[in-house]
């Protein structure tokens, strides 16, 4: 059990983000729950966090909107202080075979996944540094960013970029005792997985022969956020049942 401060979890109104928010609350952190449009869902997650004895508040903005990110995050920090940790989980997919991929299909995925790395973290890093205390940044990538997936050239490019950016930021912040790591899930049991992935086909390639759970991803994130992970930085941890 920690009492380490506040963690912002982007995209935490459902799925993996929700599981991360609740796991961190159980581990003793206050949580800033984030959504783009599902404010009612975010408020429900915040209520669950409070039921676990931790403080929670909600922020609603599009991680692809640079101006909105800066405005709302700077205002939240001014009101409540810098975060101990940030978990960059929000993102989206827009799958298509590359010859049929539209400009919007490419741009929207790059904006919501790779540009969001800058949009969310750039306003937050110096406030974290000025805390003069240990901090944690965890990004969520994907097996797509490690090996590339058919029909996901855009998503694979974005998540590979997130991995590279994570490693570079880790080097910059290491001497400040702020660790920066990446978790790369494989096929995880969420609504999004069933909407967009050929589940049965992918399962044939998973040595564990099953889908993972959001709680299993959250457990790895929780370790990286914890004080025990103070000497773990610049790493990519795959949670994929041995897929790659």
What do you see in this structure?
The protein is α/β, with parallel strands linked by helices and 244 residues long. The protein has helices at residues 15-26, 39-51, 66-80, 103-130, 143-147, 153-173, 191-196, 199-203, 214-225; strands at residues 6-9, 30-35, 56-60, 85-88, 135-140, 178-185, 236-239. The protein has nine helices and seven strands. It has a seven-stranded parallel β-sheet, sandwiched between helices. Strand 4 (85-88), helix 4 (103-130) and strand 5 (135-140) form a beta-alpha-beta unit. The radius of gyration is 17 Å and the shape is globular. The protein starts with 5 loop residues before the first strand and ends in a 5-residue tail after the last strand.
Summarize the structure.
This protein is an alpha/beta fold. Helices cover 48% and strands 15% of the residues.
Secondary-structure map with pairings?
Blueprint: E1 6-9, H1 15-26, E2 30-35, H2 39-51, E3 56-60, H3 66-80, E4 85-88, H4 103-130, E5 135-140, H5 143-147, H6 153-173, E6 178-185, H7 191-196, H8 199-203, H9 214-225, E7 236-239
Parallel strand pairs: 1-2, 1-4, 2-3, 4-5, 5-6, 6-7
Helix pairs in contact: 1-2, 1-9, 3-4, 4-6
